[in-house]
Amino acid sequence: MRRSTALLVVAVLAGLLWTSRSNPTDPAAADAAPAAAPPPAAAVFALDTVVFDAGRCADSGYLCEGLAAEGESRAIRWPDGTPGLSVRVPLPEGVDPAVADELQRQAAAGIREWQGRPLPLTLLPPAARDQTADVEVHWVRSLTDDRVGQAAVRWRVGPEGAELAVLDFVLATHRPDGTPLDPHRLRLTAAHEMGHVLGLPHSDHEDDVMYTFNTATRLTFRDFRTLEVLYSLPAGALVLTR
Looking at the domain that runs over 11-241, which CATH code has it been given? Predict the structure, then answer.
């Protein structure tokens, strides 16, 4: 893994936390490995098993490598029938109003990179507090341990199948050393975190926005292809490779 310069982005699944860390020598975004997942719920509730051979893996973006790296070989995604996700991105506080407007715009733009892939995304007006959002962005000035953002996602399996819920989605306006975050880097960080919200694992290639250390400049074909394949699998399916 190339640990060059970067902002670290982390995720947590089913108690799995994705966080973003910064490296003061480079403004890129990056991810740390998520915490270990809980014991497979499939021991109680039967779920599908999908086998990928080398050819199928090669045509699946980084799905096979990413699931293996995360230590949880499951198709963790929003279940079929999910009508879409509503997202609220409020203005960050404690920064210059013009900067706050740009940070809000870039964060929303990064999230919208996934529009319709595969779910419709609805950006709720920040002031419409009477509407509950599936994804609520929270701003902080800075996080500890060089983090610049994080998302927490709960995944579980019940009698009616797999369920997914977003517990938190945090973006920082500054690095831990007090340096303001570049809005373009923030856009990529928001896109990376939203990819995890949709169920994407980490990529094994530095050009992809879902690479552990996000050195990408945009979302790639592999990012979109991996998501397409993920959502072609049964939600919660055990994914085996051979």
Answer: 3.40.390.10
